[in-house]
Amino acid sequence: FSYENLDNATIAFNKMLQQIYFKVPNSDYVSSEGCTCVSPANDDPHFSRDGQLLLGERYADKVLEICYPDL
Fold first, then answer.
1. Sequence-ordered alpha helix ranges (H) in 20-68
2. In whole angstroms, what is the distance from residue 19 CA to residue 30 CA?
3. Is 47 helix (H, G, I), strand (E, B) or coil?
4. What single-letter DSSP state applies at residue 37?
5. What confidence tens digit (pLDDT) does each residue in 2-43 have?
6. pTM confidence score
7. Which of 13, 39, 54, 63 is the one with CA 20 to 30 A from 22?
């Protein structure tokens, strides 16, 4: 998956997601940048095992940040 090949609608949607916490209480987003996909040669949008683990770590960090801001 290549972030360089995103169309304008996808770029706009991703920017909107980055601002979701302004509209939805107790929400936020994490980036999937750097997460590898199952089949990079085919520009597959599904994350590989390593990509899923990286995204899971980011989600866990974000949950801790939101739920336990004093840690």
1. 49-67
2. 11
3. strand
4. B
5. 556 677 888 888 899 999 989 998 899 999 888 888 887 776
6. 0.74
7. 54
